[in-house]
Each structure stands twice: as structure tokens, then as C-alpha cells.
């Protein structure tokens, strides 16, 4: 399954704007082209490869050091940190950029569950999860929320949640969080599929960013119909 060419063009537009480039910067570039966006006041260095186009963003000194390095090298967060070690380069992370433009295959959990959009339920779910997972998902702060709850008891118990923020009026940036006791039951995929359907119904293109070392997130994204078509790495400059 491939993304529709029209979807690709819209994604390229959204990311061109997010990176401070001309609207057609990515769509007009040839396959394998690398764009250097020099921003001397920038407090970060980043590299992105998306649909065969590459964008390096950062101060002039970082751009000089990046020239001649391969996409594979620059995609590793350790490589970007190495470029900027004397500037206090602090790793933010490396992630796959995943997108979907078709409704996911219908799926239902093994038992009937309710879906809540209450931010307080999202906060309750976060309290059940490891801090690193909570920080990565940022679920409670999402503009749109979908929390699967077991409401068979007097007090509903949150099991898994997904939500999205709208980026550049085009992309629905989705993340998922599942309570440890509810993992490996397909609930993450289920609630992510709900977020995909709702965002598409709102006229948005679903985007899912999965850290390179998070196999569970990659499986959740693939199960909800996302395709990994890009990669992005970033470090923050602290000196």
C-alpha cells in the first residue's frame, strides 16, 4: 500500500512550512536532493529525510560539518550530537515519520469498552504509566482525545488512549499511551485507529512519529495503517 500522490504533496507542504522553507521547497526538489536551511540563531540542529528529499537545519557551522555526511549518518542522533559537542548538543531523539491516508481495517476489542474524551481520564491514564512513556506521548495535552475505559465498575478505569494536535492546519499529529496492565491486547492499535478515523473525518492527514528504538510504537502505528516514509533527528544546543 502506498500513499496517494496528492497526500504526499500536502505532507510536503506541511513540513516545508514547519521547517521555515518555501511552500514548494520539498515538492520541487529532485529525489536525493539535500536542502540546507541555515539559521545562525537557531538553538537546535536537525536532519530530516522525507520522500527521498533531505533537509538539514541549523547554524552555518553545523551545515559546514554536515556536508559530505550521508543521510544514514545524519539520521543517527549520536551523529548530530557529535557535530555539536562543543556547543552542548543535547539529544532530543530520532524518529520515523509515519502517515496514513486510508481508513484502518475495522477492529474491535475482545470486550465492549467505552470511549471517553475527558482530559481528566487522560490524566488518570498517565498516572498508571511509566514517566518516560508519559513524556513521549504527551497525551493529556492533546487537542483531541480518545480514551478507552472499562466502565463496568463504579469508577471507570482507563486502559489506553490516543490523541492528536493539529499541525499547520494540515496534519493530525497522533500519539498513543497504554496502561502497562492492558498492553499486548490490541487496545493501543484500536484506540489509535479511532484517532485516525476522527482526524480524517476532520479533513486532516494523520501523522505518527515513532522513536527509532520503540518497537511497540512502530507496531501500533503499522497496525493502525500508518506507513513509515521518513526519518528525523534533532539535538538542542545548550552552549
TrEMBL record:
InterPro entries: Acyl_CoA_acyltransferase (IPR016181). Gene3D superfamilies: 3.40.630.30. It comes from the Bacteria. This is GNAT family N-acetyltransferase. It comes from Arthrobacter sunyaminii.
